[in-house]
User: Fold this.
Amino acid sequence: MDNSQETNPLQQKDLTKKPTRRELLKLFAAGGIASAGTYGIENKLLGRLFHNILSLFNSHKNSQSNESIFLDKQPKTQATVQQPKENTQLPSLQTDIKPSQIISESSPQSMPVEVKPPPEDILINQILALDPLSLQRKKLETLFVESANTPKLIDKGLMAEVIIDPYLRADLIKKRFEIRQSGKDESLKVLPDDLIEFALENGIHPEIFALSRDNYSASQKVIEILLKIAKNEFRPDLIYEISRGRLPQSVFDNLAADNVMINIAGMAKLTTIETGGVEIDYQFKGKNYRKIKIGSTQLGEKPAISEINSQEFPTGLADLKSLVLRLNKKTGLQFKVENIIGSAPDTNNSAGSNSASSEKWGGAVFQQIEPSSLINLLDFLDKYQEPFKASGTKLCDNFADINCQLIINWIFLARGQNVGTGFRFGYLKGTYYWINPQTGEKTDIGEDLRLDSLLKWNNDKKNEADPILKTANLYYENFIQKGRYSY
Assistant:
């Protein structure tokens, strides 16, 4: 059983009072009716939808039911639904009505009329339109989280910038792990006990570890293709080091995806350090693990547009706008530039994301990558869409999705590319000693490249890069090297 201990890291305005479900439903329904025209949905139909939400609550106002307001099960065949009577309740989560279908009320014989977005996306768009630090947003986020009880809906909430309250995101992560371990959903592989123990011993929530495990193979396949079709552009840093005589040519010639990917424990630790905002105590097999940080809970403290230094990052704001436009096109949602939360600079540290001070801050977003660096990577991937299609491999295109973010993180870590402070090397496994002919000093170039690749996120060796590498090495020694797991 996990129990949150610390105050909410996202400073809110008077958010201590938990809203009632009645308040949430009324706010959602009222906002939905008012915004009907915005989504191109007939006022009569959308009004009926939200009237039913209120009817559902009014008919059960003394009930403690946690039934989801969303419809998530997809039908095998389409059904014609007659015009509902007054006070008809919304169907439950287990009904066979597709969420993106609202049926015409003109006649029992009417054909289904496809209307988008589905109910959950209407709520998400209302959330996205609100000030990220407002009480109204907190209320709607709470409504979404309480109603999200399937992996599909949980992952929609975990998309970067949808649910931004750290504790509400933590609730979604916990739900996801409960569903995973129940074995009731085939899309989520049960995490073995030995890996749960390893994760907890290293300060990682088991679901964050499991997410890394889920996405390693997909990341490996993408990187393998990139090494075949764009090796020179993907790893120019290795060409540079070979030209200096610091690496043998064989390293580049024999390069494989696994050689440039940190293992799943290292990626899980990276996620925890970069986005871990909620600490909990966790009990497992009679042992209590203190202060386990839940990754993917802390996206930032302020709107990113206020954190971009235009002198150091002249294209930063334009890049952020470009990212939002891409995201809206990919998801069909309505993200707003002014409401994108970004990570604030750590003035107590000698490092910020990709920078050494707040003056060089670029407003890290989503998976805590600066907009300029993320645009650089996405533009690179866009050039190779056709080869990927030809190979039958689909690049994940929703870079706010919690699974896709991990794939992008693995690519970003493996690739040598420019970031906010200049060029950073890509990840490389193995030991490659080089002796400086002038000083006689012996250096492990592999270790240098691994360290430099991790500094793409934060220029903090002691508190970030070293713990990540330590966790990756422990996992390799205890599991991969002993043949217990292959990655």
